[in-house]
Design a protein that fits this description.
Number of helices of chain A: 26
Structural class of chain A: alpha/beta
Number of strands of chain A: 22
Shape of chain A: elongated
Oligomer: homodimer
Largest sheet of chain A: 6 strands, parallel
Radius of gyration of chain A: 31 Å
Helix content of chain A: 25-40%
Low-confidence stretches of chain A: 1-14, 809-838
Mean pLDDT of chain A: 92
Largest interface: A-B, 145 and 146 residues
Strand order of the largest sheet of chain A: 12-9-13-14-16-15
Chain lengths: 838, 838
């Protein structure tokens, strides 16, 4: 679909964002805001400090205080303030809203709000709405066997792990895509705002479609301090900050207050008026979008809220400022248990919220504390969008078998695996127009998934030029040159019940290592929480790998992402190395059907021999590994002399080429060829759900025969996965090492001793007696390597013996008369626009 | 040093940035700019396409074209344009300038410029200034055995690897720190500008001191397109872009031109005038800083240069736009070798630069092409700042032995290792006031290095408040909540010849995994380039690790950074796990003396027993591992029954506790206790320079006795490092696994089966016959674990048997009367402000 002008999108009306005349905050609303806020603050402080005496029905004693104080007060009152105000507008406007807690370390606040609106008790009946419930609520926080101090899967309403900072806005936009009636309120702390990922995620607004997507309301919360420093954005002139926000494409609204003892009621009034104004602006934008009268990208409103760090805590402690200072970042009265004066200060602090007004005799919160709670699913803690598994619908998946490539014999045809995958994905897009997206850092075309652009566009809401292609206000493909953004958007999309793919270069995916950590942790913990429903897996498609530096001029990094992923909990990670078109189709169909995993699929995009028919591919991918009996020279009923194993597309090619050389030159050698496409099959049964039993493993790899294993990544990973296996001492792995400079594919495999000739030499050296018996042949293999290298140095491309090699031809070292070859691939098209690499 | 108002810094005058009246560009200068630019463009196109016929002395033929075309044309003419203009002002003003090539994939341009100014031939005499030299220059580019397609260590004048994008500005500011007379011209591509790290790095200007630091001139180069998409910043309204830059704190200057066939001479005139204006603004700021009249943070100028992508290439190819389109991103005429029409277009394109005017008969560039080259070291390709090893001066290191803590007996005293390290670092700062910096993401105080703030401040050039502490316009500590920025700044600082530390939480250091890749690659490649001089090592101090979730409420990630680092080339990585104060001091002294490494030091910051005297610590760290004979129960002349090994502070504590239990309860069991502090010692000799010989390894770990190894990180790393060792089948590793929720230290080690009781059980189970003989004792160990866990669930802190355990006391399971204990540490101070965690 080529569009030179953006289409008018007018097929959807929404009335969730209706305009309302703004009235000054009335006394009742003010009382409700104040009541909720005081209650949430009280519950937050209680969680941080109290083991017992939750309602202060008796004077506070040392024994009431937790021995290990842990939690973050500083950001919490601001979060509670915002939460209360959002409740008010949700009640007035019935707008479905979720709350993204950028400062996720404000965990006590989020728990407190979920408790006040009733969700917490519904999901955790043990935490009842009485004094004992409060005691449990307080005690469990940051306590052995309890809940983390940060927002986490355990926190109702959260889709956001409160560990690493930086992804609040990416997650928010991911949640908003294709949720046209949803408001995503995203609080960004001024600490988080300093991170790189957050700093670029403001530009997400250049991708959102005002009509078919929801609304993100960023609330930049300036409380001025991090752990031990002021924050940058709180210390630039206000006009500069406003310009920054306008430069990011927003209409900023500044609310500041609570300083120097200002009555919070004044701040309530100001924020309420601002929020009403902002929601009316949103309503206007939404209405214009619905009417088709929106002129370009709207300058969506955002709020800058400046309040004191640790607001409402003691102004000073031991002569140092506490409120409005970095000292209130975590636990302002750290020695409350051991210092009687501090204990007294803590008691005063707690009583300043007037708990007797907030909770009745039984300990249940009174109406003054809870009146702002919206109804049912409108409660932000109960919104099903924030427990996306509830809303998830399976994808309608077209039969991938229909996209099979013809494989009359192994290696008889050549395809670009990802290009064919793209054709299937195009159908997936067509069948699932509202809940499936493909994210990528400007590499979707380069990764040869271009077929999807025949059925959809790349979503884009910045300026257009007449020469633009495949850009539109709506599209299933979303591309920005930020791996952080792509992964963050996808995470937000998945966590709210949809499906998607992140396609990126393997070579740079380490950029999101820490994001993978956070998401894998979320999945791991969620699996143990009954009310968290399974979400679609996070699917990586990693192309442009290190074995093809010929296409990127040695700029690429390493294949170590797999190592990083394998460190995660076995239940949540899967690694697939399909090696041709049909295996890639089969693998990806599986991935898109799965839930709660991180699926890493590494697949080259260059033309590659097709080795398996679709039936064979399905069988192979179902087993996850298997013997290529068509490639080996085994004799039935006997053990092979040697096993040639491979995992990955380039290793598979080289192993098959080595096998063909051996078949020709040492025909009586019993060679078994094994391919591993599901890496987790190598692990012992007890350590990974996909692990082979030892018996199965031995039946494939033998107990005592040499195994020469050509692997896509760092060789030691294979050792690590197999070190408990009986045959491990006989395993020799060739793989990627950090070596020098080259630019032809065969150069690269030679550099890593993983080329066909070296694999043959490995076999000669590992099978007892063979090296001596075939000393001359061994020398010819050495010579072949030298000749191949000299050729590339002279000609800049692979030697024909390699470039033109095919499986079906009789393998000769100097075979020159074959027609189909991929050893050196695609010179003609490698550098055309759409296939370019960065 | 506490400062509530920033000090006036007036002790340095600089005249490199002098004001000059602006005159219109004269004809001669214009001709020089045009000549340089045409020549650089010609040389760039030649590198991408030509194997031969470098001066087009005969018609271009198929054989003159490389068979594999690789390189990036799109960004190159813009880089060449900027380079030429900077040459002009460098010549006029004699300002020492380096060039940061954000779009590092514009490698052909950077090589071309270095060739024109003569540096290339000086460093690579093979690439002479004649026709054969040109032939070699063209041929080597992206050719097997040649140079990469991107800016790289091989590129003179570069400090910037052109692989992953995002760090141009961080590197630029790192280079500018403490180089008051230096101008760092940093070109930021509009692709790179979309990355997170780049988006936040604009805020670096809130840290730079206008007087004692150099000047960064950001040049945002908008050529409009990435691989296959427009760029965000090129597609927002100009006023919005200007606001963004003002919001980032800059004074933007926009130069746009070259579109729709505009004569480049016009663009030359506009950029020249702008550059003169900008340099005069810089001169004014510098003068005001020198005079002490600068009012707050200056709004440093920056340039937005908007020119067509692929400027000067064919306007259209095959009916598609090429110039000013994403199609010119990489190789616009990809099939020039095989398509005669394309070959003709290429020849026309090359001839459009009029090579006969630019090169003389011999092939040497004529004056018209080179007249703009500055003299000697003022050439940007030759500036020694960009080959920092030349300028590097060894640090003056105070004797760390003077900071030794007293250790009358193993475990008799307790210290926070990083706090003592901070005292030594304070002296390092004092002795090296101009070439040593400590970078951190707001964690320097939290990591207990606060002593450095007694001798220096945290550099800060945003607004101040009276309550601020330790902030000043100048300071050796630089903190921003962005690991990307911290590492990027440090890299820039090291690459320009200085020294430093990056202190951060181990738990989040995965954020910079890919940056580590880039820097390790730089070091690896630089080692093989004779003219690249060694630079100071990149030193990580990783604290706040996963074993102390008690201090961060389970927000922390994993210990896998070590695994990632160990994947890098052995020559450039070192991993140290000091386990107490004296070993940390010894390790860090070594790191600060080393060059060309990435040193990863993991060190807990919580109070820990001191195990070794300084003499013992030095001996141990020099060996890198060793037997704690004071802790074992070996009998001289016999092999031990079991080896208890440890690496890391918490594992060392647990292993020693296990050893004490065994000593008491099974006194006749011959236990050897081994500590590994330099992880690379485990590797085989041939694989890492630090690797033990097999003989040494066997003498420590034995060939056949069970080894129970308690390791700080993921257990399989130890297997991977040792899998070639004879005794490997007898090695049993306990380490970090991805498990559930807890918050006391002992809970955490129990969860991972690495606690003392479980280690004892491991010994009972692994030493033949022992488990049966001590079945009752084994059960008591099991019970002790259950009791310990139940205690934490009830009390929220570790059981006294663990919390109060000491090495010197007789170890009893229920010992309750000891005074010094760190099993549960520091409850009182854990949560005070300065030690807080995020």
């Amino acid at each position: 679909m080529t569009t030179t002008t953006p289409p008018q999108t007018t097929d959807r009306q929404t009335d969730s964002f209706a305009y309302r005349p703004i009235e000054p905050l009335d006394a009742e609303s003010l009382a409700q805001l104040d009541g909720w806020w005081r209650a949430a603050n009280y519950l937050s402080v209680g969680q941080i400090y109290l083991l017992d005496n939750p309602l202060l029905r008796r004077p506070l004693t040392r024994e009431d205080i937790k021995p290990r104080l842990l939690g973050h007060w500083g950001t919490t009152p601001g979060l509670n303030f915002i939460y209360a105000h959002l409740n008010r507008v949700i009640r007035e406007r019935s707008v479905s809203t979720i709350f993204i807690t950028g400062p996720g370390h404000g965990g006590p606040g989020m728990v407190a709000n979920a408790y006040l609106d009733g969700t917490y008790t519904e999901l955790h009946p043990r935490i009842d709405r009485d004094e004992e419930g409060l005691r449990q609520l307080f005690r469990q926080f940051s306590f052995p066997g309890g809940i983390p101090s940060h927002a986490a899967p355990e926190t109702p309403g959260s889709i956001h792990e409160g560990g690493e900072l930086g992804y609040a806005l990416s997650h928010a936009y991911g949640a908003a895509f294709d949720n046209p009636d949803l408001l995503v309120a995203a609080v960004i702390g001024d600490g988080e705002a300093e991170t790189g990922p957050l700093a670029t995620s403001w530009h997400s607004n250049k991708f959102l479609d005002p009509l078919s997507d929801g609304v993100v309301l960023p609330i930049l919360h300036l409380n001025g301090y991090k752990i031990a420093n002021p924050t940058v954005l709180a210390r630039i002139p206000e006009e500069e900050l406003l310009q920054l926000m306008r430069g990011y494409g927003h209409t900023p609204h500044l609310v500041s207050g609570g300083f120097d003892g200002e009555d919070p009621a004044e701040v309530h009034r100001r924020l309420a008026e601002t929020l009403d104004t902002v929601l009316n602006q949103i309503a206007e934008i939404k209405a214009a979008a619905a009417a088709g009268t929106l002129d370009g990208r709207p300058a969506w409103p955002m709020i800058i809220l400046r309040t004191p760090k640790g607001w409402t805590c003691p102004k000073e402690i031991d002569g140092h400022p506490a409120e409005d200072n970095w000292r209130s970042h975590q636990v302002p009265l750290a020695s409350a248990r051991d210092t009687p004066e501090h204990l007294a200060v803590l008691e005063d602090w707690l009583r300043s919220y007037r708990p007797d007004e907030l909770f009745d005799k039984s300990g249940a919160p009174r109406a003054v504390a809870t009146a702002l709670a919206p109804d049912g699913d409108l409660r932000m803690s109960a919104n099903p969008v924030a427990n996306g598994g509830i809303l998830k619908r399976d994808l309608v998946l077209p039969d991938f078998r229909g996209f099979a490539v013809d494989v009359p014999a192994p290696g008889a045809t050549v395809d670009e695996a990802t290009r064919v995958l793209g054709q299937w994905l195009a159908e997936v897009v067509r069948e699932n127009p509202r809940n499936f997206r493909i994210f990528g850092p400007d590499e979707t075309a380069s990764n040869r998934l271009g077929a999807v652009l025949e059925v959809t566009d790349k979503q884009w809401n910045a300026e257009y030029l007449p020469t633009d292609e495949h850009l539109a206000r709506r599209g299933r493909v979303v591309e920005m040159l930020s791996e952080h953004q792509c992964q963050g958007w996808l995470e937000g999309y998945l966590l709210t019940g949809r499906h998607g793919i992140f396609n990126t270069y393997e070579a740079f995916v380490h950029i999101v290592d820490s994001m993978l950590n956070q998401h894998a942790k979320w999945l791991k913990v969620s699996k143990a929480i009954p009310w968290r429903r399974p979400i679609a897996s996070l699917n990586y498609l990693l192309s442009s790998h290190v074995w093809r530096q010929d296409h990127n001029g040695l700029s690429h990094q390493d294949p170590g992402f797999i190592d990083h992923v394998v460190n995660k909990k076995a239940e949540v990670v899967r690694v697939y190395l399909p090696f041709d078109t049909n295996t890639l189709l089969s693998a990806y169909d599986h991935c898109l059907r799965s839930v709660d995993y991180v699926n890493v699929v590494v697949a080259g995009k260059q033309p590659t021999f097709n080795w398996l028919t679709m039936d064979q591919a399905i069988a192979h991918m179902t087993r996850g590994l298997g013997i290529f009996d068509w490639a080996g020279t085994e004799v039935e009923g006997t053990e092979p002399d040697v096993v040639l194993a491979c995992a990955g597309d380039v290793p598979t090619l080289e192993v098959l080429a080595a096998a063909s050389i051996l078949r020709e030159h040492i025909p009586d050698l019993k060679v078994r060829v094994v391919n591993v496409a599901d890496l987790m099959r190598l692990v012992s049964e007890g350590e990974h759900p996909h692990g082979l039993t030892d018996r199965e493993y031995d039946s494939i790899f033998t107990k005592d025969r040499p195994v020469i294993f050509a692997y896509h990544g760092y060789p030691w990973l294979i050792h690590r996965l197999t070190y408990r296996r009986t045959g491990h001492p006989h395993l020799h792995v060739r793989g990627y090492k950090e070596e020098g400079t080259t630019t032809t594919p065969f150069d690269m495999v030679m550099l890593n001793d993983m080329d066909r000739y070296h694999l043959v030499i490995d076999v000669l050296d590992r099978v007892p007696g063979l090296g001596e018996r075939y000393a001359g042949f061994r020398q010819r293999m050495q010579d072949a390597r030298l000749e191949a290298r000299a050729y590339t140095r002279e000609h800049g491309e692979d030697i024909p013996a390699v470039a033109d090699w095919t499986w079906t031809a009789e393998s000769e070292l100097d075979a020159r008369e074959v027609n189909v070859g991929v050893g050196q691939v695609n010179t003609g098209t490698a550098a055309t626009g759409g296939d370019n690499e960065a």
